[in-house]
Amino acid sequence: MKLIDLLWVMVWVGIYSNVENLQLSAFTSISGFIKGARVILPLLALFFCLLKALVSKHRRIPFFTSPLELLFYYALVAIITASLSPEPFISLYWGGLYLSPIIVLWYAMNSSKPFENVRRIIIINYIIFTILVFTFIPAIAGNGGIGGWNELPFQLGEVNRNGVARYALIVIIFSLIRFINKKKGSRHFFLLLLLYALYLLVQTQSRSALLGLAVVTMLVFYLKGLNWRFLLLGPSFAYAIWMAGYKIRAQGEFDQLISLTGREGTWQKGLEQISASPFFGWGFQADRLLLEFEHMHNSYLHVAIQSGILGLLFFAGAVIGTWKLILRNKFFKEKIKTGGVNKFLVIESIAVVAFLTVRSFFESTAAFYGVDQILLIAHIGYLQLAAKASLPPEV
Fold first, then answer.
1. Of 25, 123, 158, 245, which has the most beta carbons under 10 Å away?
2. HEC-encoded secondary structure of 171-191
3. CA separation for the pair 88, 91 (Å, rounded)
4. Where are the domains of the chain?
5. pLDDT tens for residues 263-287?
């Protein structure tokens, strides 16, 4: 295991942790110690990378006018406005967690082998997602199926059906692209993984993920062109979207298909809090602290309640800036012509960004420390590297 692998795993272990586990009484047992360590490890990764930056000649974050730099500035605004939060310590803690993957990614991109390090980060994400989708086999094999909330292994916490669908769709993305491109035996492994993840996605009936599947399928078709394997998978995807989204989830009713399932009420409450501090917001975790633990379910409103208009400008600029890179069609088609794993990662990164952009309107993608943020910034980082230099040889 390389240092960057360890640092990225340290970033991951904080997922679904709780600052309350830092209480001294929690460290009286082995399980309590593990829970407490999970709270601290992402911050230790952050501290290590900042310390390395101080002793390095490359002290400036190398994201000049880039999407990652804008996300960094958004985080700084929300951290500074933690003083306005009802719980400043909690807000600062979540601000540190949000910075952790950004700074670790900066460390990877500022290394002597940036492509290799960022590729390793993405592969770690894929491995974790693959492991997680298989933990739901007992749920889909039993009578209960994928419900509103689902237990994660090792007492990591709970994830709702939209979270499960996110895991499934990411596995679908990288399995699909590698199934299309691989010419040897591993292609069959990716096909089996793809079909299982598709079945899991159907079980969740998540409309945002099904919409993401439609967008990703069209995007991959555009980037790759006609491929005979689409003749096998295309109808399967279309049937899954129609059956799970329209027939089962919406029960054949268009109104049910486009229903916001109560989000509009939370958005209205959020707008009231945003208007009370429009320029700087209320710091990280503001929605949970001000709205009685309600979740905003919209990245842009979530950002606004945490960091106001100023932070929203940085965050929206990061999203727009990422698509500015992607929409240079000829440029990225040139990159896609390169063979090997790097070709896969360019297409996968574009597809993942597309899905998470769609998801950002109905979930709080990358607005706070979480799975979406960890996933998104890794692929943005790879696209930034690909935009600045020729892709390295096949690895």
1. 245
2. HHHHHHHHHHHCCCCHHHHHH
3. 5
4. 68-388
5. 888 889 989 999 999 999 999 999 9
